[in-house]
Each structure stands twice: as structure tokens, then as C-alpha cells.
Amino acid sequence: MRKLLNTLFVTTPETYLALDGENIVIKKEDTNLGRVPLHNLESIVTTGYLGASPALMRKCAEKNIGLTFLTRTGKFGSRVTGGTTGNVILRKKQYRISDNEEDSLAIARHFIIGKLYNQRWMLERITRDNSFRVDVERFKQISGELKKYIEDIRQVNDLESLRGIEGQAANRYFLLFDQMILQQKQDFGFYGRNRRPPLDNVNAMLSLAYTLLAQECAAALETVGLDPYVGFMHQDRPGRISLALDLMEELRGIYADRFVLTLINKKVITGKDFLKKESGAVILTDDGRRKFFQQWQERKQEQIQHPFLGEKINWGLVPYAQALLLSRFLRDDLDGYPPFLWK
């Protein structure tokens, strides 16, 4: 259980939410895990599949407290809301910004600045911790290039230029990815990003991690009342969660890439955990996927200190914290959107 920006997150499995007067009570079997007054909550998010009492759902609807149910893997399930008030205003603001390139650019550049900042942190960290195993000079060179790209992003005047810089920076970053793989090189060589379908073990895991992260960003945006399909940098396309793809940019390296590298370097996943299909596509075996998902869930429970909020939260709540900050900015409660800049 964690309260963050007037949102209560209940992430303990097997919990049931009930109402006691003007309080929400979190129960597990016959034990009360906690109680929180409803009067200062804007929303409640739970991953416990046991659900909530009808009395609590009715009270939340009356008080216009959004009650969101997620699956245990973080996928959006459903949301209980009362009369339409704040969400329609928030989404209309989102749609207006999405239709205006200048306004979209002002937000989109923060997503990509966050992405490149975090990738630079990864490169600097690996040169510090593994200076005898990587080409330090090469890492420093590309880290410097990413820094220059960040400066360029602050000056761009259109979304096409922003996408161009982001693409160049991604190409430079991935030139070093193979060196960040320190173990099991015979089974986990990386020679460039490929997808639809992934053609090697590393890309199979990257694609799965990005899919999970995008799913969790979409759920986070739904939770705060934003439309995950209407983005600022990614263009609208039927069926594409464009805003979720925007939001996940700053978390790709620091969240998904580091996760994949950890599984390889700690030998949690090995070459035996993959299958190559006749089409050339590489996928995880059933046992490999089980280990991957188990490790993903465990990583989400690890605690960090959010660099902007200054509060300790689980990694799994980072997409929700960023979605909340984005919604606060769109409501004019913040002067700018603060990307997740890992330190």
C-alpha cells in the first residue's frame, strides 16, 4: 500500500478493499492491512484480483474518486467512476495539445531528454563499474554525443527534427549495447535492433520488455484519466497506444534495457530458454517466459527514491508517478512536465 500524489496504490496480492464509514480498509483474509481516509484521495489503484465491496465502489462514485483495477501484471482492467467531471476537461486539453505541433513539441522534447539522460547515466555507470571490460574511450565518446543531442533537442522547432535526433541517438546508443553484455556472449550477441519478429535472443527479450513497459504506461495513463491512444510525439494510428509510447521513452533504457541486461549478466536466462521458429523468429520457451515474468514482477517491487518527488516508491509505480505528473502539468498544477531523470 502506497499513497502518492493523492492516489492510493494497493499492490499487495490477495487483498480486498472494503468501506468502513469514510475510510477505505485494505483486507487480506482476516487481517486488516491498513485504513486510509477517503476525504483526501483523488483515486485508488489496485492489483488485487479479489476486488472491492459494492459499498466502497458506490462511495467512490459519489465522491468522484476513480477506482481502477489492474491485472497482477499491470494491464488495465477496468475503472469505476462517478459523474464525468475532471477527466473530460483533462482529455480535451490533451486532444487540443495533440492537434497543435508547437504545444506537442514542448512536452515531447521532455520525454526524449529524459530518455537520453538516462541512457547517458547507463553508459557512465558501466564505464565506472567495468572499466577493464569495455572500451571506455568509446563509451565516453558516445556519452558525449548523447549530451550534445540533449542540447540540440532543446533547440528543435518541429516534431520531425525531434524524431530525427531521437533516431540518431538510438543508433549511437545501441552501438554499445553488445559491450554491456558481460556474460554468456556465445548465446547473447547483439548486432543491432530488429523486431517484428525479433531474430535473436537479445532482441526477443528487449521486445518483450518494451511490450510490458508500454502496457504498464498505458494502464498508468488510463488510471489518471488520460487517453493512452492520443500522443504528442508518436502520431495517431488506429490501435496504437501513442501516448503510452511517448511516456515509456524516458524509461526504455533505465527500466527495460537494464532489466534485460541483468537477466543475461546474472545468468537468470540462458540460451536454453529460447526457441527459433521456421520463420526465423526467436521466442522464449514457456519456462523462459515464466522466469522472465517472475523477474519482472520482482523488479517492480524494488524500492527507489523518485528523483523529482523525493519519495521512496517501487519501480513498478514509476510509470504511474510520471502519468500523474503529466496530468498535473496538463491541469496547470505544474509549470512543466518533469521527466524521470535517474541519478
Automatic annotation (TrEMBL):
<keyword id="KW-0460">Magnesium</keyword>
<feature type="binding site">
    <location>
        <position position="166"/>
    </location>
    <ligand>
        <name>Mn(2+)</name>
    </ligand>
</feature>
<dbReference type="GO" id="GO:0003677">
    <property type="term" value="F:DNA binding"/>
</dbReference>
<keyword id="KW-0479">Metal-binding</keyword>
<dbReference type="GO" id="GO:0004520">
    <property type="term" value="F:DNA endonuclease activity"/>
</dbReference>
<keyword id="KW-0464">Manganese</keyword>
<keyword id="KW-0540">Nuclease</keyword>
<dbReference type="GO" id="GO:0046872">
    <property type="term" value="F:metal ion binding"/>
</dbReference>
<dbReference type="InterPro" id="IPR042206">
    <property type="entry name" value="CRISPR-assoc_Cas1_C"/>
</dbReference>
<dbReference type="InterPro" id="IPR042211">
    <property type="entry name" value="CRISPR-assoc_Cas1_N"/>
</dbReference>
<protein>
    <recommendedName>
        <fullName>CRISPR-associated endonuclease Cas1</fullName>
        <ecNumber>3.1.-.-</ecNumber>
    </recommendedName>
</protein>
<dbReference type="InterPro" id="IPR019856">
    <property type="entry name" value="CRISPR-assoc_Cas1_DVULG"/>
</dbReference>
<comment type="subunit">
    <text>Homodimer, forms a heterotetramer with a Cas2 homodimer.</text>
</comment>
<keyword id="KW-0378">Hydrolase</keyword>
<dbReference type="InterPro" id="IPR002729">
    <property type="entry name" value="CRISPR-assoc_Cas1"/>
</dbReference>
<dbReference type="Pfam" id="PF01867">
    <property type="entry name" value="Cas_Cas1"/>
</dbReference>
<keyword id="KW-0255">Endonuclease</keyword>
<keyword id="KW-0238">DNA-binding</keyword>
<feature type="binding site">
    <location>
        <position position="234"/>
    </location>
    <ligand>
        <name>Mn(2+)</name>
    </ligand>
</feature>
<dbReference type="GO" id="GO:0043571">
    <property type="term" value="P:maintenance of CRISPR repeat elements"/>
</dbReference>
<comment type="similarity">
    <text>Belongs to the CRISPR-associated endonuclease Cas1 family.</text>
</comment>
<dbReference type="GO" id="GO:0016787">
    <property type="term" value="F:hydrolase activity"/>
</dbReference>
<keyword id="KW-0051">Antiviral defense</keyword>
<comment type="function">
    <text>CRISPR (clustered regularly interspaced short palindromic repeat), is an adaptive immune system that provides protection against mobile genetic elements (viruses, transposable elements and conjugative plasmids). CRISPR clusters contain spacers, sequences complementary to antecedent mobile elements, and target invading nucleic acids. CRISPR clusters are transcribed and processed into CRISPR RNA (crRNA). Acts as a dsDNA endonuclease. Involved in the integration of spacer DNA into the CRISPR cassette.</text>
</comment>
<dbReference type="GO" id="GO:0051607">
    <property type="term" value="P:defense response to virus"/>
</dbReference>
<feature type="binding site">
    <location>
        <position position="249"/>
    </location>
    <ligand>
        <name>Mn(2+)</name>
    </ligand>
</feature>
<dbReference type="InterPro" id="IPR050646">
    <property type="entry name" value="Cas1"/>
</dbReference>
